[in-house]
Amino acid sequence: MAKQKLSTGVQNKIIYSRASYLYQAADYLARRAREGQHPPDNQAPEGKQAVHGAQIEQRQKAIGNLSRQVICDMRAVSLKAQIRQGTSLKRTICKFCDTLQIEGETCRSVIENQSKGGRKPWADVLVIKCNTCGNAKRFPVSAPRQQRRAVRPGKPQEAKGEREENDEGA
């Protein structure tokens, strides 16, 4: 008799944990880069204040670029190992510039309804626009997916057959 296989849990757990660590590091760096965007203190003399502000701005830009590099590394790790990232994780990353999307800081979110005068509530679309590259991602809001044609109620083939019988009888 052969040994039964035990369920080992998640395959490639090490790679998932590495991708998670890189995502958390990018999140930390992105928030750290946005943290110091307050105006500099008025206590320093005006000449030193301008130099100090330029250094802080340069440092923040470097930290933001480091955050984007870490996101790029995370994407490379998941592509090489052929693991799938969750949809919630993918929605928080810009595809084009690898910026972590933080609402109100690095992106803007708007719900649009481009139906005739916004009359169709099921046509709502969430638009997330990246402030870095200007790219917009669109996601449907609360719209259930339509079932496959074969599974839909009211089989279309029966209705067609009934019409043909009615035409013959008339």
TrEMBL record:
Region of interest (Disordered), residue spans: 139-170
Record has Nucleus as a keyword: no
Metal-binding keyword on record: yes
Keywords: Metal-binding, tRNA processing, Zinc
InterPro entries per record: Rpr2/Snm1/Rpp21
PANTHER family, alphabetized: RIBONUCLEASE P PROTEIN SUBUNIT P21, RIBONUCLEASE P SUBUNIT P21
Family: Belongs to the eukaryotic/archaeal RNase P protein component 4 family.
The protein, known as: RNAse P Rpr2/Rpp21 subunit domain-containing protein
Source species: Purpureocillium lilacinum (Paecilomyces lilacinus)
